[in-house]
Amino acid sequence: MLYKKSVAKDEVKKSRISLGKSEIIRHFCMETGMPPFMVDPAIPVDFEQVRSTFDSNVFGQGHAVDSLINVLSSVKTGMNRSGKPIASFLFVGPTGVGKTELVKVLAQFMFGSRERLTRFDMSEFSTAYAVRNLIGSGAHSEGLLTSAVRREPFGVLLFDEVEKAHPSFFDYLLQVLSEGRLTDSRGQIANFCSTMVILTSNIGASKFQTNRIGWKKTLETQVVNQHFLHSVQQFFRPEMFNRIDQVIAFQPLSRETMRQVVNRELQLLKTREGIRGRKLTLEMGDDVLDYLAEKGFNPLYGARYLQRTMQTELAIPLAQLLNQRDSLDHVLINVKRDKERLDIQAETDPLSMELLMEELEKFNLANLSSDKRKEVQRLEDGASYLKLVNELAILDREKEKQPQLFYRSKKKSQLHDQYSKSKARFKLIKQQAEKLEADISMACMGFNPYQPDFSTKLMLVG
Predict the structure, then answer these.
(1) Which of 18, 24, 218, 443 has the highest CB neighbour count under 10 A?
(2) Between β-strands 341-348 and 331-338, what pairing exists: parallel, antiparallel or unpaired?
C-alpha cells in the first residue's frame, strides 16, 4: 500500500510542468500587454529610446515627458510603493496641449494598446448621486468604476477634467491612491494595484492666460510649473495632493510646436476614409504648412483650435472638390498659399481612364483565371477522372503483385501507360491553373509585377 502511494506521488511530480522565471514573465506579459523590459529586472531599458517614442507623439512637452520617464524609471526598478496603483499622475495645463494624447501614448507603452485606456469625463460626475454610480448605487447595481477595473485590471484609468467632479469623488480617489482598492455597493473589493491612475485638469489655466499679457512669448518651464503647482495646491486637500506621485505641468504650445502639429494633422487627414479610399495626389509646399500653423495658432485653445482651422481651411474645401469628381478618377490636388488664404485646385489625371481600363483588364483576367482553376477542380471531382484514378490504382496493384503476368497483357500495359500519362497531364494542368491564379491575384494587389503575357498563359492552360 505504501509502495503504491509512493509511486502515485512520483507520477504526480512527473506530470507537473516546471516553469522558469523567464517563462512566467513571458506569459504574464502576453496576458497584460506590459513590455517584458518593464517587468523583467534582467532586461535593461533604454529610456532615451522611450523618451523618443513619447516625443514623437506629443510635441512641445519635453518637461512633461521627462517627468513621466522619471516615474517609469522608478517603476522599472521596483522603487514604487506596493499596495497602491503602479503610478498616479496629475496632468495640469491649458486645453489642447497634449495631456490626453500623452495618456494614450502611455497606455500604448505600458499595456500594449491605446484601448487599454478607460476614460471618465468628470463633468458627468458633478453631483453626489452621480459619484455614487462609480461604486454602484444599490445592492444589485455594478459600479461604473469598480466594474471597469475588474474587466480590465491592467490598464490606465483617466479621470478627465477632475476639477469638475463633486467633492465626494475625492474620498473614493483617496482610498484608491492610498490603499489600491475600493469597495463597491455590494461589498465586493476592486483591486487597483495593477492600474495607472491619471487625472487631467485645467486648474489655473484661465488665470495663467490672463497673466501672460505683457510677458515674453516663450515662458520658462520653471515659471509654468510654479504657477500650476500653486493652483493645484490651492484646489486639492493636502492629504489628496500628497497621494499623487507626480504633478506634471504642461506648457502652452509655441508657434514652432504648432508647425509640428500641422504635419501630424495632415498625415491624419490623409488616413481618412474619403481620401485613403480613392486615387489622390495631394501637393502642397512649406508655405502652406506655415500658413496653417500661423492661422491655427491660439494660446488659449492650443491644438484644438488648429484642428478646427485645418477643417475649415483645408478639409472642407477639399471635400467639396472631391464631391465634384467621380470616385474612380485619379485626382491631382494642388494647394497653394495666396496671401492670406489657400488656393486649392483639382484636376483629373488625363491618364486615369487608361489606367482604369488597365486595372479592369487585370481584374477581369483574375476572374478568368479563377474560373479556369474552378473548372479544373470540377473535372478532378467528376466521375470520369475518379474512374481513371481508380482504374489506374487497380492496374498499379496488379503490376506490383504479378509484374510478369501484368506485362504479358498488352492491353493492360497500354492502358496503364495511357492512364498514367493522363493523370500526370491533369496534375500539370492543375498546378499551372493554381499558380497562374495566384500570380495574377498577387499582381492585381500590387505585390508582384503584372506580366503582359498572363492572358497568353491563361489561354494555353489545358
Answers:
(1) 443
(2) antiparallel
